[in-house]
Prior knowledge:
This protein is α+β, with helices and mostly antiparallel strands.
Amino acid sequence: MFLFLLNKNIYVVKLVVSAITFLLFLVLNSSIYASECEKIWVIENIKINEINENPTLAKQNAEKKVSRLAFEKLIRRISLNSSIITDAFINEISINEINSLIDYRLIKEEKTLLNRYIGTFNFCFLKHKVTGLLSKNKISWSELYSRPIIVFPVWKTEFVLRLWKDPNPIKKILNDKIENFDGLINLIFPENKIGVLRSIDAELAFKGHERSIARAIERSGSSRALNIIFEIEKLRSYENIDFELLKLSEDEKHKIIRIKVKANIHNKKGVKQGLLYQRNVNINIDFQEKEIKKIMDEIIFLLEENWKKANVFIGKNLSEVEIFISVNQLKYWVRAINKLKSLPGVKSVSTKKLDKNGAIVILLVEGGIDRFVSIVLENKMPFTGTKENLILDSHKL
């Protein structure tokens, strides 16, 4: 009997110690991982070259300017109608207020010369302070990255119809745009993925063939497709042509071509969801590359603005969402809590109840349960169950 009671007491002590340790992690995990910064709040490789006869002043001025540049880049990334709002809004924010929004600033490299300071910086911004500022100023924003979107660049002339093969002047321009893009939409161009390239050819893309588009989406690991079609035509008539605008004389009218552009969005099943962009424009063939770049910028900007509108946050309409986190190790618990806190629209995470298989937590989220489910699906988080009984498997994070 004594041994039984002793073993029972030892078990209870172990259980209490485990529970206390677990609770301590609940309290401390946010500070332990404070140095982590979610991708959306990171601004990287901001370069500055500040000239001043006084090298100390050069560095001080550079640090002020680079912080403002980083803040501007962040606001352009997440705010709705960023091209309209940003300039006026950013100019009203003081450098002290901008500095208060920064979690940390990392100097990647720097050089101080006699009359110049050169540096490259990375920044991490504080989510709650930035979104609080936007909400205060009634600026809508989005924090949600899209899942991959495959792009089909179709090029059609009188003689050729191209998609993956050259000559196709859209391909390099598109690839450069994707490599340097820093927005919320995740565009992919499957240049070296043979299985994807064989899924669809130029004619099928031009016709918007649903089965082929769906096959390419699946093989590329995308969630949808952006089908961009450029049709190049020679003009049959030169009436009402503004030669001066095109920087041509009438003797050079053979250099004028018409570009007809359409951009359609297709869902995972290949079905066209609607026309995103359409434009017919006459151009001087000497400026063809410049005009294509301009059109591509317009398409990508419009696609991203539509994405932001569909996933907009305004800092209001908060509601509680209850979920269960399946967990048996502290490291998975910490990972799950930090991931939930980083999700767009999640304002707070609190523990309601613990049990041997995990814990029930309450999330304060913007937009309610439907919006929350949409966000976790977009982030490919390992949830199961129904809306009323959501279960997060922390081991699969």
